[in-house]
Design goal:
By secondary structure, the protein is an alpha+beta fold. It has four helices and ten strands, in the order αβαβαββββββαββ. The strands form two sheets. It has a six-stranded antiparallel sheet with strand order 1-2-6-5-8-3. A four-stranded antiparallel sheet has the order 7-4-9-10, with no helix packed on it. A hairpin with a 2-residue loop joins strand 9 and strand 10. The longest helix is centred in the first third of the chain and has 29 residues. The termini are far apart. This is PEP-CTERM protein-sorting domain-containing protein. Keywords: Signal. InterPro entries: Ice-binding_C.
Length: about 200
Amino acid sequence: MKVTQIFASALKSAPAIAGSSMLAAGVFALSAPANALTNPCSATIASKVQGTSACEFSPGESQDFLNSNPMTVNQVGFFSFTDWVFGGKSDNVNAKTGTWNISSLIQSNWGDVMLVFKAGNDPLTAYLVKDGVTSGKWDSPFPIQNNNFRDISHISVYYRPGEEGPGTEVPEPGSLAALAIAGGFIVSRGRKALKNA
């Protein structure tokens, strides 16, 4: 077979190969879980929480369920990690702006730390906390219209287990929960401070 015949034959079969590839890609996209992806936040939304280095949202999730296995934040893989551990939650925030403080909750064996903001049925929005930062200001990342933003219903803190520091005791899950209940994660709005429930 001449080179020109091989080339012509390949050109004739190219649309069928391309069509098969596109069909396979479409089937793969349809079979992948809708909530398996997160998207980077816009620069405006990313700047809403001080002391953070990255922001992602999950268009397929509006609830950060803790009773699912794996937890929602691990199902969607915020910041490409699927080993997040729940560290605490501040309920009933009901504000558009305030401050966050995890200084009395954070442990030396925590690696990455993430704050997850929730409001109504808006997509969960997560912020990766900068190393060494334990507090900062926040503004709602959930725009409504005309530069208005939705009130936050709650903010949760998650962490990834990191290297244990020298002489550091790793808290048992029960004592970690007690730490959170004792008010380790504080979110304030105006003059009222909300502690973990």
